[in-house]
Here is the input.
Amino acid sequence: MFTVDHKELTLSFNEFHNVSEGDMPRYGEFCLLEMKNGDYTAGSWNPSENGRGAAGMFIRGTADSIASEEVERWHSLDRYDITASLETEGVNWINIGLEEDEGERCVQFEGFKSFADKKNPKREQYCLLIMKDGSLAAGRWEKWRHEAGGAFIYAPALASHSSDEVWAWTPLSIDVFFAAELELENEKKRERKLNRNPQADPELFKYGMDINVYYEKALEKLRGELGWATLSMMKKRTPVWRIAPLHGKYVFGQISKNYFDDSDIVTPWTEGASADEFIDFLVEYTRDTVKRSNPEEKFKLGTDISVYLQKAFENVKRDYRWLDKKMLAKSWRYDIRRVDGDLEFVRRYWTERKYSVYDVESAEQFIEWVELDYRSAALAANEAVAGYEPAFGHIELYGWNLERYVFYKLKSGDYKVSVTAGDRTTGGSRDFFITPHCFEAKTYEEFLDRYLEIVPAHSFGLGKKELLPNGELKKFLGY
Here is the structure.
C-alpha cells in the first residue's frame, strides 16, 4: 500500500479548462468542477446539441446534475494515476497537471481522511477521492444500512465506488443535498433536546400513559357491536398506536422507521384533543379489522386443519388430475393455533420451523389460499416434455417489455404457459396452467376464447389476433 501519509497530503490541481471558451471535456469524462460561485464539485460530462458548444450537464448521480452554465472551469479526474507519487516516501504535495506560473489558477485540497482510521463522511457529503489503484474520483457518500462501510455514488442507477476501493477522501463544497441533510441532522438534535422532558396534556392522557388502557376502553365499546372482539384482533390493524414524545410533548402516534438510519418517525394523531375522542377514534380505526376476524366465519368447519386441507386438495385435483399428496411433502405446512390468545390459521414452509399467521377472514378464503399453494406444488412436480415459443415483436406492458412467452406440454399430457416480462432493472415470470375446460372446446378458436380468460391479452401481451393464425401453435396444442 502507499507510503504517503494521507493526513499530510495536499493535491494541487493545475491546468483548468474554461467553459466560457467552449473548451469542454470528452463525452462521459469525469471532472473536478469549479463553480461560478466558488464552490467545488465533480461530475461526468454529458453534452447537449450533439456535443457542439458548451451546453450540457455534469452528471453526479440519479436526478443529481450540474448545468454547464453554472460551471466556471473544469479539470479532468479520469486522466491521472498518482500511484508513483503515493509510493514515494516523504511526499506531501502532488501536482495534478503541469504547475502554472499564476498560483491563483491552482486549487489545493487537503485534510484527507481514511476509512482505515475509522473516519466516515457524513451522509450526502460529496467528496474528492483517491482510489487504492492510484486514480482520482469523486462521489456522494451513502452508508450501507445494515453493515459496515458504504459507497460513493457518482452516476445514475446508483453506480458507486465502494468504500473498500477508496484509499483517502476529503469533502468538497456543501451542495443543496448535503445542506438538506445537515438541516435534518440539526432538526434531530433539536428534537432529542426537546424530548428529554416531554409534557403530557392532562385532558389527552387522563387515563394514564399506558396505551393498552385506551385500546381496552375501545374494546369495551366494540364488544357491544362485535361480541367476539379481542385486543389482539384490534392490533392486527397496523400500524398500532403508541404514546410517544414529539416536539417536547407526549402524543398518540404511529411509529415508523427512517429507511436510512432506522431512527423513529412519529406520526401524531390529530383528529381530536381528548382521551375519549381518541378512544372513539380507535373504535373506528379497528372496526373493519375486527369484523374480518369473526371466529365463526373463519372456523365454520371446526378446528381440525385436515378438514380444510382435504377440501383444498379435492378442489385442486379436479383440474390438476395428476396431483397426489406426496407432491405436497416439500411445500407448505398448515395448522390452527392460538396466537396472542386467538385461534389463527398458520403456515410454514417445509424447511422452516417457525409458523406465520395466515390472516384470512373466512374459511373459504383460507381454502382458496391453500389451493394456490397446492397448484404451484402440482405444476412444479409435472415435468415439461416439449415447448413452443410463438414469435412476437416488441410488446410493452405497462412499462414492462414482454421477454418470453412459452407454451409447454407436461409429462401428464396437460399444458401450461410461462410468461416473462421486465424493464431495465427488474423483471418477473408467471406460470399459468391451461385448464382441461379450455381443451373441451371443439375448435381452436373456441379454445383461445377460453384460454384468454386465464392469460388475457391486455395483461400478458399476446391475444387472439396473434395466436389464431399460428398453425404451429394450433398443432402443438392438439388441434
About this structure: The longest helix spans residues 176-194. Residues 211-291 form one domain. Residues 145 and 262 are 8 Å apart (CA to CA). The longest strand covers residues 400-410.
